[in-house]
Structures are given as structure tokens and as C-alpha cells.
Amino acid sequence: MRKKGFTFSLAVMSFIITIFVGVIITLAMVFMTTFHIYITKKFIIERVLESTQAQDMLLSLLEAEQEGVKFRQAIVYALYQDSEKPKIWNGEKIVEYNLEEIAKNFLSYFYENDNYWLFIYDEKKNEIKTICKSQENIEDLFKKESKKNRRASFPIDENRWLVLYINLKTQE
Amino acid sequence: MKGSIYTWAAVIALSIIATFFTIITMLSSSKEIRLTDEVGKGINAINLFYLVQNILEERVKLEVNVIALELGNDCGGLECGEHCRWCEEKPKLEDLKKEYASKLKSAIEKIKFTENLGKFNLQNPKLKEIRIRDEEIEIELESHMINYSLNDFNLNVSNGTLIFIEKNRYPLFLKIGRDFVENDLTKNLDEELKNVKTKASLTLEGRCATTDELLRLTDFDTLEDIIRDILNKINSKDPYKKENCKAELGAFSKQAILKYYNTVWISEEPPICYAEASFSFQLEYKINFVCIDENKKIPKHGSAELENLTLKFFVNVNSIVDDGKSISKIISA
Fold first, then answer.
1. Counting C-beta atoms within 10 Å of the first and last residue's C-beta, which end of chain B has fewer, N or C?
2. The model's pTM
């Protein structure tokens, strides 16, 4: 009788423990997916902020054109001329390329309901020069490192980077 | 009996649940996620490569233009003895192109990007070759490389070789400038100056004409205009007209040397004197030469100003005009 009771208790406890472990694993997986943490075979945990979608957006933005002048040309000229509105000859006339206006039009079209922040970061001076942002005090929003932040960046010379932050109100 | 049933039920329940979670774990954690992660890194690395390449292309093209602008304003960076003076022999076209290539090489080699891109590393591009053609410059680079390495997963993104071509007429201006100095200028000057009137005669009543009066009857006073006309004729021909290249007269000095003067009284009453004289004219002048590309405006460093691509230099010329002959030489150092 005692043996029967013990076996029954063991079976019930095993069942409960297994369910409990399963629930924990499931919760952990949900947590990892939500926070973009992946576990590789060797248990390397990486928080994924670098977003392919944001990179694609930067690549497209570099091709944004105004009167025959592309954004990629304008950004290089802006740094060379030390001006936010570089003057560029398009083969017919001088175009004053407004980096802020072009970037804002472009990014607002794709991120109408989301927040974005495009800036040049000088790592030597630790200085940020904002090109455009979707709202005032955007810095605070992104500094919170919200789980919804997506970032893409690339170097434009030895010390400076072009950085795009996107804060998605709706997940990717 | 009952105990044995419970035991089996527990074992089966455990097995089913364990199998269920094992399958979920196998499917979602290890290989699949790792593969997704690595494919994602590959896409990120490719994107990063093209982001850098786009900026690299613009920076290389900017250097091609900026160096041409700087050298063009400084007569190609080479001279003979005096700032921006060219001679008949120097500087040679090949040396001018080498100077351009050398400045371009050091400017392009200075283009560097941050090498540490988070989990990726960037290997900066290396200059392979510069090809200078009349109206375009071709830059060949050993492409930059983005790499990522972690245990058994290695990733390299590179294009091998990158070729950027920028339209720029600076080398053509150098060629036109050297042709002007070596072939066209003195040839055209001598062809026209040999027709300059260096002799004069005058018959006066009561006295003989002086050498000064006779000199005024030659083309001596209009020599400056004659040279301007010759230059205008050169300017109106191709390639000068087509490429917007102009030669203009600068500082000018002239001297008339009397070679022959004779007077004859051809009548006593009334007294009439016939006088004749022949002169040799020695001219020394400066010719400024400039080519401007109206379709190429290049930015200046640190300023929003744009400047036309230009080639500027000058030559000093010495001409001796004498009795239907003219010998012009570009003064050498």
C-alpha cells in the first residue's frame, strides 16, 4: 500500500515538475524572442539591435535624389564644405542640397507612424550632429534603449559615422 | 497491479512531455536560430559593404576633382623658374600627368574608414592603379573588405576590385596648354608678324623726315594690337574655342632699333627731301593662358563656394621683327 502511494506520488510530482520546467522554457523562449535574444549552439547570447531593415533604409536613402544630386554625394560634400546645405554642381546648375529636408521627406514616407533619428556621430569628439528627427527630444526616447529600437550605422571616414535609429511603434 | 499501471502512466506521460519539449527546443533554439542568425549577419555585412562603397565612390570622385582644381590653379604644379611660368621644353606633359597622379595617389591613400564596426571588421581599400585619359580619370582599387569571424563561422564580403570613373577635362587642358606652348604660339606669331611694316619713307618740303617721324609710319605703334589680334585668331580656332581656352596679352614692352636711314634732296626749289628708314623691332611680352570648364564646378574645402575647373599659366615671349621676317621664342629659364 505504501509502495503504491509512493509510486503514485512520484508520478504526479514528475508530471508537475515536467509541466513546470516546460512552462519555464516556454516563458524563457517568449522572453528571448521578445527581446531579440538568440541562443546559438554554443550559448552565445546576443542582443540584436543592428537591423537589416534599417540598413536597407540607409542604402535607399543614399540614392535619394534632388535635381540630379544623390544623398550619398551630398553627405560627402556636406562634410567637405562643412555645411548642412552643401552646394553641388549637377552639370547644369548649382543645387543647394538640403540634407534635412530630403532625409525627412524620405524617412517620413516609410516611418509615418514611427520615430526616427538620423545623425552624424563623431567618435573622436563624441559629438552628434542631427540631420533630421521625427520629433523634439527624440534623444531621450532612443537613449532609453527601448526594445523597439532598430539601428543601422556605417563609417563615412576614420572618425565619423552616419547613424539611423528607428523606434518602431509596431514591431518589424 | 495498480501501482504498476500508475508507474507506466507516469513514464509515458513523462516521455510524451519530454519529447514535446525536446522537439520544440531542437526546432527553435539550436541549429535553426543559429542559421538564421548567421544568414542575418551575412545580409548585414553585405549591406554594410555597399554603404561604405557608396561613400567611398563619392569621396574618390571628389578627390579627383579637388586635386585637378588645386593643380589647375597652380599651372599643373610644375613651372620653370617663376611661379606659374611655362617654357617651351618644360614642364613636359608626362611630368604634369605624373604630378597629378602622384597628388591623387596620396589623397586617395588617405581615405580611411573606421575599421572596428562592432562585430564586423573593415579592411580599408588600397589603390591599385590610376589611369589618366584626356577627359576622364579611372581609379582602380583593391576593394575594401568586411569580415566577421567567430569560431567555425567566417564571413568575408569584398568585391575584389573596384573601378570608379570620373569625367574631368583637366588632363585635356594640360595637353592643349602644352600644344599651345610647344607648337601653336610661336608659329602663329611669326606667320603674322612677318607682315608687320618695319620700313617707311616720307617726302617733305623744306626738311627731311626724322627717324621718329618715319617710325610712326611703320606698325611700331600698333604692335600691341597686332599681337592681340593674333591671339584672338588663335583663340577662335579649335581646340581652343571648343574647350574654352584663351590666350591673353599681359605685360608688353617694345623697342625699335634703327637699321638704315637715308635722305635724298630730290628738288632744290622748292626744297623737297625724301627720307627712308628701316627698323628692327624687338618685343618682349607676357601671354596668359587659361582654360575654363564651365561645366565643372568644384567645391573648396571648408566653404560653400564652388569654382570652375581651370588651368592657368603664362609664358614670356621674345619676338624680333625685321624686314619681312619674324623670329619668336618662348623665353627659357
1. N
2. 0.80
